[in-house]
Write a structure and sequence with these properties.
Order of helices and strands: HEHEHHEHEE
Oligomer: single chain
Helix content: 25-40%
């Protein structure tokens, strides 16, 4: 149990998949209980050069089980109108591997785009803690594009 507690303390007792708190008092056998997810994807195994690509993260047992051996779908905020949202785990893997800039979503409203940009920076601080990102909002074609930028990793 000490390995689980060490990982949970490092991750702030928050599930990396759903970003919800994990209750330390719940049994590890309960669906909402804590579990350790070995986050190595087939792509990441080839290029395991960073903390995001592989390693162990805290997850709810149900999130970990539902995810299985496939790349999980990290949910976007339900209260915002989004167009063509990119899969966040894939975005994180690409930015971690190559750095640079990546467009992740379009919004019809500038206020929504700014809220999404702020949410993305906050979410990535937990999804990929070793990879600081900046979010930008750009107008174009009657809509607003939100892009993430990360420094190239060496």
């Amino acid at each position: 149990m000490s390995q689980l507690e060490d990982i949970a303390d490092r991750d702030g007792w928050r599930c990396w998949v759903c970003d919800e708190p994990v209750d330390r008092s719940i049994s590890v056998n309960d669906p909402r209980g804590p579990s350790v997810d070995s986050r190595t994807t087939p792509k990441a195994a080839k290029k395991a050069t960073s903390d995001f690509a592989g390693g162990e993260r805290l997850a709810h047992r149900a999130c970990n089980t539902k995810k299985g051996a496939v790349t999980p779908v990290v949910p976007w905020p339900a209260d915002l109108i989004l167009m063509d949202p990119a899969p966040l785990v894939t975005v994180a893997e690409r930015l971690d591997r190559k750095g640079g800039r990546e467009v992740v979503v379009r919004c019809a409203d500038k206020a929504d785009a700014r809220r999404v940009a702020d949410w993305l920076v906050d979410r990535f601080s937990r999804l990929a803690p070793g990879m600081p990102v900046e979010a930008g909002v750009e107008a174009g074609g009657g809509q607003f594009v939100v892009a993430l930028t990360a420094a190239r990793r060496r």
